[in-house]
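Notebook B, p. 112. Complex prediction, attempt 2.
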Amino acid sequence: MIEHSEPHIVPKKTYYIVFATLMILLFVTVAMAFVPLGPFNIYVAMAIAITKAVLVVLYFMHVRYSNRLIWVAAGAGFVWLVILLAFTLADYSSRGWIKVPGK
Amino acid sequence: MSETHSSLVAHQFDDGVQQKQATTLGMWVFLITEIMFFGGLILAYTVYRIKYPEEFHHASKHLDYVMGTVNTCILLCSSLTMAFAVHAAQEGKRKLTMIFIVVTMVLGAAFLGVKGWEYYTKYTDHLIPGPNYDLNHLWEGAGLLPKTQLFFSLYFAMTGLHAFHMLIGLGLMTWLFVKTKRGRFSKEYFNPVEVCGLYWHFVDIVWIFLFPLLYLVDRSH
C-alpha cells in the first residue's frame, strides 16, 4: 500500500519556473478582466485560477512526487467540491422548470 | 524492531519514510475538510452571483484591484519562500530554513497589512454591511440595486476567514522557527516543516480563487 522510497528533493530551478508561470498567469487574469467577453470572463478567470492551483498542488505541495495515496486524497477533495457545487447549482438552476400546482 | 528505528520515529511506525507519508496524508485529509469549509462560502457566492449579477458586478468595482493584485503577488512570493524553506530543511540546512521561514512570515504579515488597510478603507467608505452601509454616496445607481450588501457580506466572510487562516499560518511559522532554531529538524526528520508548508500553500490556493471571484468581476464596463 505505502510505497517506500527516498524523499524526492525538487530542484530549485523547478520552483523558479513554477513561480514565474504563476506570476505570468496572475497578470493574464488581471488583464483578461478588462477585456469585454460578457459571460465568458468568469470562465476565463476560473480556468486560469484552476491552472494556478494545479501548479501549486503539483510542484509546491509536491503531489507530483508523492505516492498514489496522496494523489487519491488530493483528487477526492476536488471531486467532493465539484459534487457540492454541481448538485446545488443543478437544483438552483432547474427551479421553476416544472410548474408546481398551487405555487 | 527494524534497524532504521531511531528516537525520531514514533513507535507505531515501521520507519521514518512510513511516518513521513502518514504525516503528509494526515495533513491532506485536514486540507480536504478545509476545501469543503471554503467550498461552502464559494457555493454561497456562486448562487448569489447567479441570482444578482448586476449587484455583484457593480459592488465588486468598489474593491481596489491594484491592492488585490499586489496582495496576490505577495502571497505567491511567500509560497516560493515557503517552498525554499522546505527545500532547505530537506537538505538539513538549519540557518537557511530559519531565514526562509522569517521571509515567509514577513510576506504573510505584509499581506495582512494590505488586507487591513483595505478593510479600513471599506470602513471609511461605509461599505461594511450593517446599519451604516451606504453605497449611494459612491455610486448614484446604487439605489436601484438594493442587494449590493450581499456582495460585501460575502467579501468580508471569505477574506476574513482567509485572513484568519493566515494568522494561524503565522503562528505555525513562529513555532517552526523556534523548533528549527533549537535544532529539532534534520535531513532525516523535517515532517513539521513539510506539512506546515502544505498548509501555507493551501491558504495561497484559497486566495488564488478569492482574488478573481471578488476583485475581478468583469471590469470591462
